């Protein structure tokens, strides 16, 4: 593992773990022989062209973590990417405090694995749910998400657009639910009800090893009931299933949500193997063992199977809804003049629109 850290620039991490974005292991042979060589055109070579282009450009993924202090948000992020990617990992002792208001902070990293480069941005929301009065505490987060949409929109409507617009849009929000074992709190319902309309939300039960298996199953069932009762649509949303195959895969995921997760950056010796886990009096809770928790399912969803789909929904659904609304409401002023001009931002622009 090789890395250099800088608060001003991105952190460069080369990881030798996992199987993240292992794209195109076997290149397409240009002179590949087929059973009917005369009829072979070579259209399948487009896959290799796309792979090479994607490898050159790299990938971007912006993930937000939301939840009150002490739920293991930073630890889970470090566990997901097998590196010190969380904000807390780079904080000094003086900075380790509970803010009086919600402070949204992001830190970017360049991660490389098996030749695949990805710019990962982790957006933390310290202060959420930690105050005496948490009314409307979701609003600063809503404002931040819409601000990223606005920034992308202004780049799009420029006359001279960049060849590749930097993407700071929030692709996914992991919402941490405390392991109470009862039901969703009002703050959980309010947050997910508002934010599920503008971003992909993946709810997780934090520190799930504090619950028995029976308590965990009961809690998950109660949460799913609360989500349906409050019409909260979390990722993967049913209406965005593209075909029958997707529907089957996503139904299994929806039956598992919220994921009961355990995070740890500590390794322990278990049966002759070094494993990530949490040590208790009764033994080691193995983070990547699906019999112990559902961390592996969450990792697969976010990184190995659905990352591109999460980005596609952000772009084609959430951002598109924001873009259409903004252009409609700002297209014509009372005097009939165009409100949005290329290379300029209207003075009356408001970033905290609600859906």
From the structure above, extract its key features.
32% helix, 8 helices, Rossmann fold, 8-stranded mixed beta sheet, alpha/beta, 17% strand
Description:
With 355 residues, the chain is an alpha/beta fold. The protein has a domain of 240 residues: Rossmann fold. The protein is 32% helix and 17% strand. The protein contains eight helices and eleven strands. The chain has an eight-stranded mixed β-sheet with strand order 1-2-4-5-3-6-7-8, sandwiched between helices. The chain has a three-stranded antiparallel β-sheet with strand order 9-10-11, with no helix packed on it. Helix 4 links the parallel strand 6 and strand 7. Helix 7 packs across helix 8. The longest helix is centred in the C-terminal third of the chain and has 24 residues. The relative contact order is 0.12. The N terminus and C terminus are likely disordered. Belongs to the TRAFAC class TrmE-Era-EngA-EngB-Septin-like GTPase superfamily. Septin GTPase family. This is Neuronal-specific septin-3-like. Keywords: Cell cycle, Cell division, Cytoplasm, Cytoskeleton, GTP-binding, Nucleotide-binding. InterPro entries: G_SEPTIN_dom, P-loop_NTPase, Septin, Septin3.
């Amino acid at each position: 593992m090789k890395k250099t850290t800088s608060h001003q620039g991105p952190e460069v991490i080369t990881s030798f773990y996992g199987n993240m974005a292992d794209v195109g292991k076997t290149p397409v042979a240009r002179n590949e022989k087929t059973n009917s060589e005369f009829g072979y055109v070579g259209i399948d070579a487009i896959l290799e062209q796309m792979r090479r282009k994607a490898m050159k450009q790299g990938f971007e993924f912006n993930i937000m973590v939301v939840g009150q202090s002490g739920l293991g948000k930073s630890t889970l992020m470090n566990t997901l990417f097998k590196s010190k990617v969380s904000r807390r990992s780079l904080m000094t002792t003086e900075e380790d405090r509970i803010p009086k208001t919600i402070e949204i902070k992001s830190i970017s990293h360049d991660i490389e694995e098996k030749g695949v480069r990805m710019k990962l941005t982790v957006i933390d929301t310290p202060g959420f749910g930690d105050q005496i009065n948490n009314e409307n505490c979701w609003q600063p987060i809503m404002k931040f998400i819409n601000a990223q949409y606005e920034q992308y929109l202004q780049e799009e409507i420029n006359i001279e657009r960049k060849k590749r617009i930097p993407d700071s849009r929030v692709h996914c929000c992991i919402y941490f639910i405390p392991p109470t074992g009862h039901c969703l709190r009002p703050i959980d319902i309010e947050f997910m009800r508002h934010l599920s309309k503008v971003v992909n939300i993946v709810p997780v039960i934090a520190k799930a090893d504090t619950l028995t298996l029976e308590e965990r199953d009961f809690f998950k069932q109660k949460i799913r009931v609360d989500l349906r009762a409050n019409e909260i649509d979390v990722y993967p949303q049913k209406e965005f299933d593209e075909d029958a195959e997707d529907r089957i895969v996503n139904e299994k995921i929806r039956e598992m949500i919220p994921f009961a997760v355990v995070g740890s950056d500590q390794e322990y010796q278990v049966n002759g193997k070094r494993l990530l886990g949490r040590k208790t009096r009764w033994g080691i809770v193995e983070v990547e063992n699906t019999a112990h928790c559902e961390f592996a399912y969450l990792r697969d969803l976010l990184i190995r199977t659905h990352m591109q789909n999460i980005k596609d929904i952000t772009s084609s659904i959430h951002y598109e809804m924001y873009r259409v609304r903004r252009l409609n409401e700002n297209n014509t002023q009372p005097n009939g003049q165009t409100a949005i001009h290329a290379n300029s931002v209207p003075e009356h622009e408001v970033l905290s629109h609600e859906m």
